């Protein structure tokens, strides 16, 4: 999985006044859990653009002013209810021998006969939770829609897994091909025409 580097400044004072001052300076207060003890730091709000405002999944390397580097994943993020500014971010520290759970995007591949026949592809799951060791985290999960006829569903059990596992029930629908209104109308008209032709005979 691709990684993004974020440069941060360690914070000693994490009280409300100090946190407000951090935000007023255009910085985002953050904390990294999962290590021996939580690491509090702040980073420029612009540094998170490639991590937060993207459909892709990334791990993170937090570079602190002390020279310390911590590998992590984004765990939780809080936005302002009105301005949508980032208020706070929680990270979880990665350990080579410890599995983590992370959401990754679904990438649709192949051509569905159902779609080519006029059906509409509906993606029910744009992201899926996977569990794996950090080195085995996938950039995306591939959903091949080649077998899907009109009305078919693609279940999570049909998706390939390498060295990771899905954190969803087996009956989770990833995508499906629904009959479009135009196709439904055409089918109804065809049936009506066939019925009329049968009566004429």
UniProtKB/TrEMBL annotation:
Domain of life the protein comes from: Bacteria
Keywords: Ribonucleoprotein, Ribosomal protein, RNA-binding, rRNA-binding
GO cellular component: ribosome
Large ribosomal subunit protein bL25 L25 domain sequence ranges: 6-91
InterPro entries to which the protein is assigned, alphabetical: Rbsml_bL25/Gln-tRNA_synth_N, Ribosomal_bL25/Gln-tRNA_synth, Ribosomal_bL25_b-dom, Ribosomal_bL25_C, Ribosomal_bL25_long, Ribosomal_L25_dom, Ribosomal_uL5_bac-type
Domain Large ribosomal subunit protein bL25 beta: 100-179
Gene3D superfamilies: Ribosomal protein L25, beta domain, Ribosomal Protein L25, Chain P
Family: Belongs to the bacterial ribosomal protein bL25 family. CTC subfamily.
Subunit (UniProt): Part of the 50S ribosomal subunit; part of the 5S rRNA/L5/L18/L25 subcomplex. Contacts the 5S rRNA. Binds to the 5S rRNA independently of L5 and L18.
Function, as annotated: This is one of the proteins that binds to the 5S RNA in the ribosome where it forms part of the central protuberance.
Name listed for the protein in its UniProt record: Large ribosomal subunit protein bL25
Protein species of origin: Flavobacterium ponti
